[in-house]
Amino acid sequence: MGDDSEWMKLPVDQKCEHKLWKARLSGYEEALKIFQKIKDEKSPEWSKFLGLIKKFVTDSNAVVQLKGLEAALVYVENAHVAGKTTGEVVSGVVSKVFNQPKAKAKELGIEICLMYIEIEKGEAVQEELLKGLDNKNPKIVVACIETLRKALSEFGSKIILLKPIIKVLPKLFESREKAVRDEAKLIAIEIYRWIRDALRPPLQNINSVQLKELEEEWVKLPTGAPKPSRFLRSQQELEAKLEQQQSAGGDAEGGGDDGDEVPQIDAYELLEAVEILSKLPKDFYDKIEAKKWQERKEALEAVEVLVKNPKLEAGDYADLVKALKKVVGKDTNVMLVALAAKCLTGLAVGLRKKFGQYAGHVVPTILEKFKEKKPQVVQALQEAIDAIFLTTTLQNISEDVLAVMDNKNPTIKQQTSLFIARSFRHCTVSTLPKSLLKPFCAALLKHINDSAPEVRDAAFEALGTALKVVGEKAVNPFLADVDKLKLDKIKECSEKVELVHGKKAGLAADKKEIKPVPGRAAASGAAGDKDTKDISAPKPGPLKKAPATKPGGPPKKGKPAALGGTGSTGTKNKKGLETKEIVEPELSIEVCEEKASAVLPATCIQLLDSSNWKERLACMEEFQKAVELMDRTEMPCQALVRMLAKKPGWKETNFQVMQMKLHIVALVAQKGNFSKTSAQIVLDGLVDKIGDVKCGNNAKEALTAIAEVCVLPWTAEQVMSMAFSQKNPKNQSETLNWLSNAIKEFGFSGLNVKAFISNVKTALAATNPAVRTSAITLLGVMYLYVGPSLRMFFEDEKPALLSQIDAEFEKMQGQNPPAPTRGISKHSTSGTDEGEDGDEPDDGGNDVVDLLPRTEISDKITSELVSKIGDKNWKIRKEGLDEVAGIINEAKFIQPNIGELPTALKGRLNDSNKILVQQTLNILQQLAVAMGPNIKQHVKNLGIPIITVLGDSKNNVRAAALATVNAWAEQTGMKEWLEGEDLSEELKKENPFLRQELLGWLAEKLPTLRSTPTDLILCVPHLYSCLEDRNGDVRKKAQDALPFFMMHLGYEKMAKATGKLKPTSKDQVLAMLEKAKANMPAKPAAPAKATSKPVGGSAPAKFQPASAPVEDSVSGTVEPKPDPKKAKALGVSSKAKTAQGKKVPSKTSLKEDEDKSGPIFIVVPNGKEQRMKDEKGLKVLKWNFTTPRDEYIEQLKTQMSSCVAKWLQDEMFHSDFQHHNKALAVMVDHLENEKEGVIGCLDLILKWLTLRFFDTNTSVLMKALEYLKLLFSLLSEEEYHLTENEASSFIPYLILKVGEPKDVIRKDVRAILNRMCLVYPASKMFPFIMEGTKSKNSKQRAECLEELGCLVESYGMNVCQPTPGKALKEIAIHIGDRDNAVRNAALNTIVTVYNVHGDQVFKLIGTLSEKDMSMLEERIKRSAKRPSAAPVKQVEEKPQRTQSISSNSNMLRRGPAEDMSSKLNQARSMSGHPEAAQMVRREFQLDLDEIENDSGTVRCEMPELVQHKLDDIFEPVLIPEPKIRAVSPHFDDMHSNTASTINFIISQVASGDINTSIQALTQIDEVLRQEDKAEAMSGHIDQFLIATFMQLRLIYNTHMADEKLEKDEIIKLYSCIIGNMISLFQIESLAREASTGVLKDLMHGLITLMLDSRIEDLEEGQQVVRSVNLLVVKVLEKSDQTNILSALLVLLQDSLLATASSPKFSELVMKCLWRMVRLLPDTINSINLDRILLDIHIFMKVFPKEKLKQCKSEFPIRTLKTLLHTLCKLKGPKILDHLTMIDNKNESELEAHLCRMMKHSMDQAGSKSDKETEKGASRIDEKSSKAKVNDFLAEIFKKIGSKENTKEGLAELYEYKKKYSDADIEPFLKNSSQFFQSYVERGLRVIEMEREGKGRIPISAGISPQMEVTCVPTPTSTASSTGNTNGEEVGPSVYLERLKILRQRCGLDNTKQDDRPPLTSLLSKPAVPTVASSTDMLHSKLSQLRESREQHQHSDLDSNQTHSSGTVTTSSSSTANIDDLKKRLERIKSSRK
Fold first, then answer.
1. Which residues of 1526-1557 are buried (b: 16+ CB within 10 A; e: fewer)?
2. How do residues 1108-1167 score in pLDDT, each as one tens digit?
3. Residue 290 and residue 299: Cα distance in Å, rounded?
4. Helix axes 712-725 and 729-746, enclosed angle (nearest 10)
């Protein structure tokens, strides 16, 4: 027992985990006791056991497990943390408890599950139980079903989700186990109890016997609604209350509460959706158009069968609906009309809400078809339209229905009215607002007077239904003119009406009917409704009961009494009273006097019209006292004001009396029951006095008091019309001022904007400025409430006025409308109009647009136009879209019926032509504005496709789509977008752009919403997948959106939704949810608070919430303007008032600060590069204009939106210049701290500044120039180099400003131009400034010329582009300018050049007129500045920062530049003074760009000047390499890290200077020899190899040909290169990095070197060739085997194709390949066979067998066969699986060849077949050679005879003779001339002499003697100059050929030198070469390296830029070189002659 004592000492939690069962049993018992003792559910004790509970229930010992289950049950019941264990514990119960034989264990298990449900974990439990249903053990399945059944029975269908259970029921009924089937039956009965018949459809397919049994059981169930017997923790109070009620014996309320549980499950929801579109007959669309009706019938019947499915899957049904609509509308066979109508019914029923988008198209057609008389057709149409109505809202189809009401056909009128009546039955008070009721009532009232009785009856029924739905109060105003008889008829109909929602009761009960609302109808009803947006879906009903009755309901209830305006019965009487007072009859003057005398002192009445003003004043004082003391009920207001108006009335001359009078009016209005009738009496007088200096204020007070009682809208309308019907401007302006203040005090509710507009327009046109100012102020106040749409009314005003209005609106922007302070107390008792105005306030803001006349454009949307839009030719599509845009533009405001346009436009949203997509988006934006809120009905069919466009890959298209979506949402509100599955479907698409844009949009919109449709939850799973998206932006946007989703859905729901994720994802997402929970903005507070507020706030409060989004929008949202319209549409009503007010401001104010404090420029990786690409690819407009057009500004705005802070962008693109100043100030402040951002957005900043140059405001211009100065100083500090794109889109516009009249500006611009030379080469600036000299503005011409002079002075002649000659000629033209300043500037510039270059100038400027020439000479004399030999002013160009290659931006380092021209002159005159050359070498380097451009143009002038030709020949030789110091002194500053150091050294390897190159190679060799350092080279191998073979080429083409060069220098360089390479290729890891393309070029270089006959003439030559041999072997062995094999194959192919290459070359390549073949057995596994076979395939494609056989040698075909044979032997049949990379295998014989080989190898032994192959090959070869020999020789002689190929022909002939010594060439020579024969013989002799005694060491299979080749130079005597050994002069063609090669190498075209692609284009090529493109890579690398050291070398035109290598090696060689070249040139010239 010793063991026992041990475990007994352990703490409880350790006992629970002990391996002894006794210990565990004891532990569980103790735990149980502990659990029962803990009273506090949050005690930390609980957490100790958190991880153990699963073990409690899954214990392996049955006895112990029972105890564990007991303990677990107590734990779950009492611990607050228990919820965390749900998943694991329930799954443990399912798998380990439900299979236990003991009933007790199972019971406890079920109890634990139920307890988890009670603690709100129902979903997780249900999920585990449903998983258990798939278990193989039937016991477990039975227990799971039983648990679900008990849970349902106890908790009810609200807690237990039935849909997933019903889904698995049919499967359970099919189980083989009877127990499972029985249990399934029990649960089916339980489910039926809750949802009744909704269960039938899902079970219709089970076994008929089982169904019958179920039916029998179902019948026995009690009919009463079931109630839950157990409640969740959160509902426990409810349970207690229920018990109290039952004990009291009544469950009156209980029923009410549960009533709304019954419709919770809709059968439709439980069904599986069926996809039918794909099942339509293939020829359906043809058949439906067929001429025979039988065929059409067949097509329709096929559809009918499909649409019988009760639930259809969503899809694009547009075409199907269109076809059916056509049949209904146009088919002559009525039977088919009925059939098509049935199909539509089926679609509408099966798709429900998803059909809504097509409703608008179909409704008018069906209604018009009601003209058919046949009952079966009418019935089918009725069913169809009723089904369709349920898929949409009355709001959405109201326009269509109302349009048909005016039809002349009585049947149509009747059926439409009946349809309206049926529709009304589905409505509720909230879904049938006044705004909707009004037009319908108006139309129906016409019908009740119709001549046809059936039309009248139908109209009565419809009106009766409306009366029943919304109550008399709402309908009565519309029935004012209806006579009593008809009114009774309407009421009678109303009695009979049965509403859909049951309850056939009188009006008192007219609230109940709304309650049960079958889920869909009500929700859809709510959709079109404005002010109930936030009443949570379908249960607005019970709310209308007196709110106090039900303390238990959620606080939501009881609110809409205020909202809906249908006050409860209690308030009705009071209301009735008031209504009577308002229409107070007008009393006669006698009656008034009588009433007044009853309440006023007699003296008072007598003195009213006394002629003495003092008496009148005394009388007024008494009057006032009497009024103050009077009681409200007794006060005869009308009589009193009549007395006041009695003579002298308002003509009172004494101001004191008048003031009293006005004060009394105010008093009467405040204290009495003042009616509109009384108001009418005084208003005229008040308006008359409002402009009075002394009485004006009193008049205003009186007006305000009247407005309080008679509501502002009415008062304002009266006052305005009176003021503007008289002429006094003072009165008009003061009236407008009063109204402005009144609106602020009363709020905007109910004001009829339209009524004011005409008056305001009159005021704006007034001559008196005060009136205009007041009008504009009033507009500003109105703008606060109405928003931007207000401006539409004034668009046709004069520009000056419009700008004032805009300025006023601008001031108001971002302000919140003040909270109304007046008008509230009155309404709180529920005000007259306010009742009706429950909906009206909406009209104030939103429907301001509806006050405009709307045009019907459907007739203009013709079928031709629609077909145009869908045309195949994009131009025609564009025409179609242009037409549509024209139609909308012309119509301004349109009705919602737009025919077929939506489908046509939808098609264009995925047009392949992006320009059309953008155009379509613009049209849709227009459409939204033009159609206003009615655009709602198109959200589903057009809005959602716009969202799809957010996934476009083009930035600008996405921006346009986002703008369009925002424009739509502004009109529609968000509800339409969020309803249904459409949005979640979009989010589901795995398109990163779509996801990030959509989430960004939601993150912006969701926080502004009061509530959202429940469908938002559908987006959550996709939101979670976005949180883990591969794309970082998507993840970020998803995280941003998370808190806002949570704000609407709650943490619980969001956390539940993670259940379906993988465990790892789930943890991550839950962590993010926790984080988001902390940041979650407060949800708008419960509306209950709004009830406590004065109710009548419905008016002002409507606009209140606008305050929230308003602030927000200024800082962060896309529409910068506050839009109350949106606020409203988003479902913000009076409810939101406190809530929203509370929620957002706190957030936004925070947000605003945060926004402004953040960075203003956002660094977008590669953003600038992308923009440049777009501009290059013409995807965006090129920045090139004379004045900026709107599209440029818009484009810039769009581009900036991604990288400039929103608030700054608003400032930058503001219409007011002060905002630009503000923006510039901010930019200046942020310049230093945000260098990276500034550089990243530099192109955009410069473009924006160019726009500022076109502004007329000087202060902005000054500020902009100030900023530019700072900017360029910063850029030069940062060593940044402007890109071509930035320069060309900025400099030309800056130069425009150099001609400004203001000195100060000109000075600044010149200063900026000066600074720019530090970041942009002066040579490139030159052409821009030159262009500026062509301006019409003389100041600009003069300044530009001066600037050119400065450039030449500072940077020497080399800045002159394109050539000094051309530039100076252009400058000289200006000497004859008519403007003196320009002439002077031109002369000064040329004098500057003269000072640098002396008389050379006269040559360059060409011929001038005598007058100009004399002026110039005079000026030169005067300047008396002879050209000095001293260097001219030296200017440094800042070194630029070298960017990494990847950024592709051409930012290069510049070195110091100095004008060297005069020094060179000196040097030349002193015949190459050593110092000069020395100087060049040490200090200066060439500006390659310039030299190239120079040479280009000089060439054009060849005929004139000998020197020019000289330059031409020279410069290409120069270009390859600028001279370089080994390592510059700034090396360390420039290169901070190893990588850049290595880059720099490698760049020097390819240098034209041999010493530099050798030094660089030595450094690299040191690195490679040290194992620990060699790794540093990794990643640079390709770069190094490229530099190396560049150097090899340079030696081969240049150095070897240079007779002045010491040959031992070259040998030294060769030995360094080869030594380096051998070191490199001994390190396998590095060797393997070499890519195919580079290896190919390397091998090419090495083989060329081995074949270079010139090397062998040198002493050490043999040694070099042997080393190369060794190196080649190393390369073959150590490189990546795939790459080298591939490279050799490509090289072989190229060498065979190139006629110029020698056969020896191909032979050596093939020897390399044979060596590779020998290595194959060892390397076969590391080779990528697929790639090799692809290369062989390409080879065989280029060289089919036939072509190979024609080769001079049989080697190629044998090599190929051997390679393939070896591969086959090694891989066997598997080799055929490696042809995957070959697209079209039939293009070559490879596959066939392999198959043959496989077959062959199967038949014979390998060795034999080997011999066969070889023999066969040689046999074939022999045959062919004999047959072809004559042709072959003929070919050779042809070549010898041709001018171009003569040398090649001779070489071939020599080879041929050597090979076939017995060949007879006699016959070919016999027929030729003697000259030709001797030419051939001499040629052959020359070749023989050349090659004799030069037998090369062939690459042998054996390895040549190993040698260590070091970089130590071997002393060798100078080799004799190369050339033909026989001393023959080399022909000029050789030099031309070399020249060509050099030119090509330097990127110079051989035809036109100017056209060299700019460096940027070279640099932007990919850095990883394809096989053939290593030269591209080379260019890119080298030009980059070269430019990184770019410096200007200035020299005069005829100075010969010296040979790069020459200048470096010897000081004197430069002159020698020049002489040598002159000689060569002479030779070339003479040979050319």
1. bbbeeeeebbeeeeebbbbbbbbbbbbbbbbb
2. 333 333 334 334 333 433 333 344 333 333 333 333 333 333 334 445 667 888 888 888
3. 10
4. 170
Burial class (CB in 10 A: 0-12, 13-18, 19+), 346: buried
Question: Both tokens of residue 424?
Answer: 């009304």
Give the tokens for residue 1303.
């000195």
Indicate if the alpha-carbon torsion angle 522, 525, 526, 532 is positive or negative. negative
What gap in Å lies between CA 951 and CA 949, rounded to an integer?
A: 5
Do residues 1613 and 1591 touch, judged by C-beta distance below 8 A?
yes
Please report the beta strands in 768-896, taking only residues with DSSP state E, as ranges in sequence order.
Answer: none
| DSSP 8-class letter at 80 | T
* Predicted confidence (pLDDT) per residue in 936-977, tens digit: 888 888 888 898 898 998 889 999 999 999 988 888 888 888
User: Whose CA is closest to 473, among 545, 574, 549?
Assistant: 574
Q: Take residue 1832 and report the two structure tokens written for it.
A: 């072959």
E strands present in 1579-1620: none
Q: How many whole angstroms separate alpha carbon 173 and alpha carbon 214?
A: 11
Calculate ∠ Cα 925-931-936, nearest 5°. 85
pLDDT at residue 1782, rounded to an integer:
84
Closest C-alpha to 158, from 235, 47, 44: 235
Q: List the one residue out of 956, 964, 955, 1109 whose CA is nearest residue 1033.
A: 955
User: Between vectors from CA 304 to CA 300 and to CA 310, what angle results, nearest 5°?
Assistant: 155
The token duo for 1170 is 């992308």
Say which DSSP state 1447 is in.
G
Distance between start and end Cα atoms, the chain: 124
Q: Kindly give, in sequence order, each residue whose CB lies less than 8 Å from that of residue 1897, ignoring residues fewer than 6 positions away.
A: 1662, 1665, 1666, 1669, 1904
Is the bond preceding 1362 in cis, omega lying within 30 degrees of 0?
A: yes
Do residues 1220 and 1260 lie in contact, with contact meaning Cβ atoms separated by under 8 Å?
yes
Q: 379 and 415 in contact (C-beta within 8 Å)?
A: no
Rounded Cα distance, 759 and 723, in Å: 9
pTM score of the predicted model:
0.37
Q: What is the pLDDT of residues 693-751, one digit of tens each?
A: 888 888 888 888 888 888 888 888 888 888 888 888 888 899 989 888 888 888 877 77
Q: How many residues does the chain have?
A: 2033
Burial class of 1455 by CB neighbour count within 10 A (0 to 12, 13 to 18, 19+): buried
φ, ψ for residue 839, nearest 5 deg: -95, -30
Rounding to the nearest 10 degrees, give the CA dihedral for residues 1101, 1107, 1110, 1112.
-130
- A 10 A CB-CB count for 484 gives 7
Give me Rg for the CA atoms of the chain. Answer: 48
Alpha carbons 932 and 916: distance in angstroms, whole number? 24
Q: Which of 1103, 1105, 1135 is nearest to 743 (CA)?
A: 1103
**How many CA within 13 A on the CB side of residue 451?**
3
Question: How far is residue 1393's CA from residue 1384's CA, in Å, rounded to a whole number?
Answer: 14
Backbone angles phi, psi at 312, to 5 degrees: -110, 150
Burial class (CB in 10 A: 0-12, 13-18, 19+), 1903: exposed
Report pLDDT digits (tens) over 1611-1623. 888 888 888 888 8
Question: What gap in Å lies between CA 235 and CA 233, rounded to an integer?
Answer: 5
Residue 1867's Cβ-count burial label (10 Å; 0-12, 13-18, 19+) is exposed
Helices (H) and strands (E) in the chain, counts: 108, 0
Q: Which of 1014, 939, 1003 is nearest to 970 (CA)?
A: 939
Residue 144 has pLDDT above 90, yes or no: yes
**Judging by beta carbons within 10 Å of its beta carbon (0-12, 13-18, 19+), is residue 853 exposed, middle or buried?**
exposed
**For residue 774, what are the CA distances in angstroms to 584, 736, 1741?**
34, 6, 86
